[in-house]
Amino acid sequence: METKIFYSKEQLARFFGDYLTALTRQNDVVNIALSGGSTPEAIFDLLSQEYKDVVKWDRIKFFWGDERCVPPDSDESNYKMAKMHLFDHIGVSSENIFRIKGELTPEEALADYRTVIDKNLPKENGIPRFDVVVLGMGDDGHTASIFPHELSLWDSPQWCEIGTHPETGQKRITLTGQVINNAREIVFLVTGEKKAPKVDEILNRKGDYRIYPASKVDRSKSLWLLDQQAMGKQ
Length: 234
Hints:
Elements: E1 2-6, H1 9-26, E2 30-34, H2 38-50, E3 60-64, E4 66-68, H3 78-90, H4 106-120, E5 123-124, E6 127-128, E7 132-135, E8 160-164, E9 171-175, H5 177-180, E10 185-190, H6 196-203, E11 222-227
Parallel strand pairs: 1-11, 2-3, 2-7, 7-10, 10-11
Antiparallel strand pairs: 4-9, 5-6, 8-9
Helix pairs in contact: 1-2, 2-3
């Protein structure tokens, strides 16, 4: 596991932009699963401005690690956030975007996304293989849309599952642990002081850290990009 700490979201975003630049120059195709949240939003804003003509965007195929069961024009949609803050500014072909169809029923969206990743991703050990899975982490230690109260979803034999937000009851489609950990590399983007307690527990394996889904990610292929606040530093 590798961790890198940055003074600001902007500094973190530039590191990630350089990371994508190198990936797209070294590979003809890069299959990446995006995450939602405020941290990726800020990063997408910077990428769309400073890396518009630097990253070889046409070589990236975009998927998602999770999505809320809402229409693609909903303000809660991870797809809409990526579209507004990144895709609309960098000229990505629709053929390179493989969204989770949150406007369907959860069961229909689940079945559709299972088919999408089956048809459009290479397999390793019979499991879809992303080049990069980008993850965030919630204040409660959840990642993708696997929450502590549904930790068993991590070990599901299925590639995707339906997760449920513990407070709102909202349904979400999420990749499961076997697909996340089958990726070539897993990149956590974590910012903000509210994340610091869980970051400390998970990275330093303190207490009951195993109850947090984010702790289940394969450390041998994980890159944690954090700002100082997420590390408990001011």
